[in-house]
Please model this.
Amino acid sequence: MSVPARYVHTNLVAEDWRALAAFYERVFGCVPVPPERDYAGEALDAGTGLRGARLTGVHLRLPGWGENGPTLEIFSYDPSAERGQTAVNRPGFGHIAFAVEDVEAARQAVLDAGGRAVGEVVRLRAANGARVRWCYVTDPEGNGIELQAWEP
Model:
């Protein structure tokens, strides 16, 4: 059975939410959606299953969707857990993807802003003949990003 639903946001847990939000604003044109979040107390403990947690952060409107589009929710937790190593093939959420006009230029912008390369820029052909030029990079905290440009 399907329930009525509408996609709202994806959460990204950051070591430094302000610095990571600034990266997504600068490189991809994401826009903050007030208010900033600052939560603590019994309700947060109950909802997260963590004792004594505090989270702070912001929602960023993703580019290309207008005022009511989905957001990237960037939060920092106190206390935080240790980060595992970035791997594009690890089960679970792997990356966020952005359609760009020029994959190489977008890749360079990510690198210039403190991100890292994961692989090379490549071109693949889908079963329907369409071609996509793409690559994986990471943001400054090691979260996966795909940059893609579909060709006619």
About this structure: Residues 6 and 70 are 9 Å apart (CA to CA). The first strand starts at residue 9 and ends at 13. Residues 17-28 form the longest helix (12 residues).
